[in-house]
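Q: What does the assembly look like in three dimensions?
Context provided by user:
Components: two
Sequences:
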Amino acid sequence: MDLQNLRALNAERQARRAALVMTDTASGAQQLVKAADVALHPQAEALEAFFRSGKSGPLEVDGQMRFVTVHNPPVRLVLIGAVHISQALAPMAAIAGLDVTVIDPRTAFASPERFPHVQVLAEWPDEALARQKLDAHTGVALLTHDPKIDDPALIAALRADCFYIGALGSRKTHAARRARMTAQGFDEAALARIHAPIGLDIGAVSPPEIAAAILGEIILALRKKPLRAEAAS
Amino acid sequence: MEDDVLQSAEVWRAAGRGVALATVVETWGSAPRPVGSQLAIDETGHFAGSVSGGCVEGEVVTQAMDVIADGKPRTLEFGVADETAWRVGLSCGGRIRIFVEKVA
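A: Here is the predicted structure of the complete assembly.
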């Protein structure tokens, strides 16, 4: 790969835009294709399928084999609540390759000092999520216990068909949450998508242990079945 | 952020070092890393990322030195059936093919 292509590819990845590299492994000749330009490409249909699946692999072009490396943006995880659990979960999720954003309107909680290396937004979730749209490649964990902060994010996550939605709180808290979401017009199928109590049942006690239980549940939702968007296509 | 292979490759190359990029292009059986997994290697033997569970990285780094030296891409194959398997085989029983190219 020449340095110019590598720079262009890294610029796309940093901007959360998909791109792929098509290589002739015999000669080393390469072509960088940005997702925005794929429609104009002679192999548009085949390359679009690569973007949809996110999986790298071989492609035959005019009787010759090429290898396609797909670089889709990493799966995003939005943490609502810059709380103690989030302080453990944010770096763990980042190590696992997730693109982490922490949102909390309480500026004393949502400080860069408490959350180095991840994006921190000291804003109300409905404002922050109006700019950073949720999608099927995004997971959301609600961790504040406070309906004023959690609920707007939960409504946005249910509407956006997020691949994972987890909500912290006891069964009693969750029953009250379900009642509020029912009043918002969400049906039983929508409510069933909320993981509550949050996290795999591994007997977690401390905030870092709860973070591990949540990360395990997120990975389970991500890997055990195809993303909802892919299953539909 | 995840250990970023392509970012490392760019930074090393921009610093004037010789750099190679290895990519898993085919797997058979139970391979440790999926197709598309990448490893960046610099001329001093530093590397980022992985193409196996650590089983063949050493050999890939060695071969990458030749790729950096002559600029010619190579495709390497590793597996239990290989002559080299006893030395750098995959204990899991899988086979992998790895494309190694120079970052020019």
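Follow-up: The mean pLDDT of chain B is 87.
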